[in-house]
Amino acid sequence: MQKLFLIVSLSFLIFSCKQNTVQKPQQHLVSDTAMVVSANRLASKTGIDILKQGGNAVDAMVATNFVLSVVYPRAGNIGGGGLMIIRTPDGKATALDYRETAPLKAHKDLYLDESGQVIEGLSRNGGLAVGVPGTVAGLYAAWQKYGHIKDWSKLVMPAVELAEKGFAISESEAHRLNKYKDDFLKWNPDNKTFIKDHWLKGDILKQPALAKTLRMIAGKGPEAFYEGPVAQAIVDKVTKSGGIITLEDLKKYKAKFRNPIVVPYKDYTVISMPPPSSGGVALGQLLKIVSHYPVKKWGFHTYKTTHLMVEAEKRVYADRAEYLGDSDFYPVPVDTLLDDAYLEHRMADFDPLKATPSDRIFAGEFELHKESFETTHISVVDKNRMAVSCTTTLNSNYGSKVIVDGYGFFLNNEMDDFSAKPGVPNQFGLIGAEANAIAPQKRMLSSMTPTIVTKDGQLFMVLGTPGGSTIITSVFQTILNVIDFDMNMYDAVQAKRFHHQFLPDYIMYEKKTFDKAVMDSLKQAGHKLKQVKYMGIVKAILVKDGKLEGAGDSRNKDDDVEGY
Ligand code: GLY
């Protein structure tokens, strides 16, 4: 009897330990056949399971996304939106835009007071910050057009199970859940799912309400989200929290397939996201500009290379502020912005020895908002070399912090990506103008830059990152690191980063990016510098010598590469 008791106790102990173990993610892997890189091990593993069950890259991406909505709730989502590039094995590429839209009742001056001033925080917190979510429609549209697995529910059920049974949270998730506790309680006083005295690594997070919603989506697809009780609950909660989304907004939401931005860079072709993202245009402009200079010879993080990249970035982000927005609402001059003669003209006043002050390009100076930049990215390559680069977001950490009562998911605060007023910065310090003004059903401008690079018609690289305004420059640097500075994928992702976005007029850089001599030369040329904690969390896959090299980013300890 005593023995039996001991065995039962031991088994219980082993089971509990196993349940509470957060498995260590791997951030570098070389494999032969297929690969998934995401911000969480359970999510990447689910993607690989789907591939092994005969799914293709799109199926894997969909399942990985749904799992992220459970295990990475700060950015993985069903209440947000995203953008993706899909490249099929025959070399055809398409862009899928499932960005949120402004509600029908929205208008240009939505966030202004009677005297025309922006009301601080209104576009970032609570119901009025919420854009009409696009994720469920987008993932379904991708699967409908490209998926191989016939049964949609198979792609959603892994997420249902994790939400139901719970999972052991990582240290970084525990940290964030603790950090935002007051915000969760403010907007959701009756919801205790994410509330604990103090979350610790290994604590089990169960989300029964989210499991119920995901089960409905598994059964009925987007209809379960955009109509019926979930839609009603979204409207009720948004309204209660000061917002204006209606049932009509949800019913009208559509994901859109678009032509990607395709730009040559040396022997490579870069395929990236068109408006409503600024990512593809800005990345294309940056690559085209630097292609005229011998950056490979100048070297990595030298004064000459850095100064050139920064001066290009200032001009490109100035263009972004003026000309980029949802092209369904504003005639974004994509061809002109990417035109060689235009870019040559743009760099005509480039002085190799002197920084051009941003107020000679545009006026104004301000500080970045303190909110951290949360979005997430998934890169997938399957056995046929079909590839998906998918970036998805709630905007800030846990979006607006508003949770849909009874259905357990966070709603985005993507409305802050619109320009609330010309020249007034959003949380990323980005400014905008008419092109990105608010209008009913318009998509807010994004910096998300899901990207695929090919060489000689073959898949070469799949990459993307979170990071708000620094997304574009993180992708830009990662591409240069591989192509010009001969780094492998892992080193290219870990390499230190810097960023200039025209305003504020300083170079943001990570600790140890530049040696002292380079810092001195940059200052001497007139650059201001500001050290930041980190920028970008790139997830990338490189195809080389018939193998796949995957890299997560050590800037997020949870990033994980899985492959076979
Ligand atoms: N919400 C960040 C972006 O789309 O750029």
The count of domains is 2
- Overall 3D shape: globular
Helix content: 25-40%
Strand order of the largest sheet: 1-18-17-13-12-9-8
Helix-strand makeup class: alpha+beta
| Share of β-strand residues | 15-25%
Count of distinct strands? 19
Q: Which hetero ligands occur in this complex?
A: glycine
Q: How many helix segments?
A: 19
The stretches of 5 or more residues where confidence is low (pLDDT under 50) are 8-19, 363-371
What distance lies between the first and last C-alpha atoms, to the nearest angstrom? 46 Å
The average pLDDT value, as a whole number, equals: 94
Main sheet record: 7 strands, antiparallel
Radius of gyration: 23 Å
Would you give an account of this structure?
With 564 residues, the protein is α+β, with helices and mostly antiparallel strands. It has two domains: 265 residues, no CATH class; 230 residues, Glutamine Phosphoribosylpyrophosphate, subunit 1, domain 1 (4-Layer Sandwich), CATH 3.60.20. The protein is built from 19 helices and 19 strands. The strands form four sheets. It has a seven-stranded antiparallel β-sheet with strand order 1-18-17-13-12-9-8. Strands 7-4-3-11-10-2-19 form a seven-stranded antiparallel β-sheet, with helices on one face. Strands 14-15-16 form a three-stranded mixed β-sheet. Helix 5 packs antiparallel against helix 8. The chain binds glycine. Glycine binds next to loops.
